[in-house]
Specification:
By secondary structure, this protein is mainly alpha-helical. Helix content is about 70%, strand content about 0%. The chain is built from eight helices and no strands. The structure holds protoporphyrin IX containing FE (HEM). Protoporphyrin IX containing FE binds next to helix 4, helix 6, helix 7 and helix 8.
């Protein structure tokens, strides 16, 4: 079981209370799809994803980016039980969507870059350490139902 100190809890809830999901979610997902283009293969129903400009202006990508952030929100609200919270989402990504779990880490990295750019100097090493720990737990929980 992962332990969270009071300061880690307040850092994570503090970041999420100020994040604009409609901005950060789409930006992070777009970055992932552009930087790691093999991740595009899972979004075949999303329409035109032909180049970076098309990805950035695709409304399905934007909506899905927001959805991912709402997914993270559930982990923030259940910090002591992230694995159980994500059990169903993990089954969905593995058995139905067949998403290679390595991709969770790639999206996590894009989320980190996007959040760091937003926070600027507030993204201190201590904040980064806590954020990285949080996403590592999320990535591990999402990968848990894979065999
Ligand atoms: C769907 C969260 C990573 C591909 C979803 C949904 C959520 C979610 C909340 C909606 C589930 C539902 O409708 O019940 C997350 C989180 C991730 C993550 C929190 C990691 C931080 C990824 C990655 C990929 C991916 C890395 C592929 C590269 C998909 C696809 C869908 C989906 C294809 C279905 C989209 C649709 O057809 O509407 N994800 N996801 N996810 N996810 Fe993820």
């Amino acid at each position: 079981m992962v332990e969270w100190s009071e300061s880690e809890r307040s850092i994570i809830s503090g970041i999420f209370s100020t994040l604009d999901y409609n901005d950060v979610g789409p930006k992070a997902l777009c970055r992932c799809l552009i930087v790691y283009p093999w991740t595009l293969r899972y979004f075949g129903t999303f329409g035109n994803l032909y180049n970076a400009e098309a990805i950035k202006s695709n409304p399905n990508v934007a909506a899905h980016g927001v959805k991912v952030l709402h997914g993270l929100d559930r982990a923030v609200k259940n910090m002591d039980n992230i694995k159980a919270t994500y059990a169903e989402l993990s089954v969905l990504h593995s058995e139905k969507l067949h998403v290679d779990p390595d991709n969770f880490k790639l999206l996590a990295d894009c989320l980190t870059i996007t959040v760091a750019a937003k926070l600027g100097s507030a993204f201190t090493p201590q904040v980064q350490a806590t954020w990285t720990k949080f996403l590592a737990v999320v990535v591990s929980a999402l990968g848990r139902q894979y065999h």
